[in-house]
Amino acid sequence: MTSVKQDEAMVNAFDPGRLAECDAETRGMIERRMRLLGPAYRLFYENPLRIERGSGTFLYDQNGEEYLDAYNNVAGVGHAHPRVAEAIAAQAARLCTHTRYVQEPILRYAERILPSFGGTLADDGHIMFTCTGSEANDLALRIAQHHTGRNGIIITSEAYHGNSSLTAGLSPSLGRRAPLGQWVRQVPTPDSYRLPRDTMVSWFLDHVARQIDDLERHGNGLAAFICDSIFSSDGIYDDPVDLLAPVAELVRSRGGVFIADEVQAGFGRTGHGFWGYRRHGVDPDMVTMGKPMGNGFPIAALAVRSDIVAGFGRDMRYFNTFGGNSVAIAAAQATLDILRDDALPEHADRVGDYIRAGFARLQKRFPVIGDIRGAGLYVGVEMVKDPESKAPDGVLAARIVNGLRNRHVLISATGCHANTLKIRPPLVFTTGDADRLLHHAEALLEELAE
């Protein structure tokens, strides 16, 4: 592979220092954006995209140029799905109000979604609505801390759980300068590519137990262990699937609750189980969800065991002006119906396997593809400097992400070293779309190998 300076940007973001390289129109828009929106916002890609519409698995720029979207999981049933758009428009024309009035649609949705969780939550759970996954996680942690009387929270080393004050404090993937909360403890990523499979469960349990001990030693103790079952920000690790059930047992034995953050892995993204944690055989105490729940319309939620939320509900009220509003519920119901009617979780299994098999074929030609992971339509392709050392190559991953963008295929990168290609397209992604992705990935790897 062509050598690249190691100080190049290792993540999928536009460098404002390269603004002069953009065409005049794009440069003008970015300058306006920086002036109006401020410095905290980021743009994707070395050469930013101006997107004006979407349809199914495609996005279109201002010139009508088509881009295959293999990244945006928010539009789970496809960009601008007509059934979702029609449901939103019809409800907005009728009523949009909060949850303090009795309304049939929110009850109907709750009756539909609660059985999907299985286990205790299906039998004796409640669902509470928010606008975003950050809010859902924030609420879950507040309830956990109230229920246990403790503050301690355990996360994985590169977790992302949101951007509220509380959840940003347990999202180390936001960057090295983003401070973690006082009562937050980290455990290492369960790296199935580098760690021995036969000892990984005991290794992970040992790390969780040590952090519980540390929280207790410092006078407070454990409120919750929270994780994303596909470990998306850690690098996308789908296996082993016997990892989390023992953790849940340990956490409960030490007085804490187990929270499954399904914002990334849920709603069929990781296949036919519908929820990522079900692959692990876990019966969680709480489940948080968001992103694809309304196919782009802001809606998220928390499912929680009745005994855990009982005290919280007794001691304080919960109200969210926009959480679970009439239009949001209409979007969520249409999305849920499409997932069922079109069997999209099962479709995700088939097409995801097809993509992983395609990258496995490429791996035989390009040993810089170190590992291929994932479940359903959440695919991770880890790039390394060589297969013997397994040294991460974030520079190469960034070149692939940007190279594919220039070929009108959109993906991103993730993990501690930003060296794992993150492929998570809308669930309506077809094998034809996959062939297009694989064709351009192969051509780009050939080009970079010259």
From TrEMBL:
InterPro entries given in the database record: Aminotrans_3, Aminotrans_3_PPA_site, PyrdxlP-dep_Trfase, PyrdxlP-dep_Trfase_major, PyrdxlP-dep_Trfase_small
Cofactor section: pyridoxal 5'-phosphate
The entry's keywords: Aminotransferase, Pyridoxal phosphate, Transferase
GO molecular function, one term: transaminase activity
Similarity field: Belongs to the class-III pyridoxal-phosphate-dependent aminotransferase family.
Protein name from the UniProt record: Aspartate aminotransferase family protein
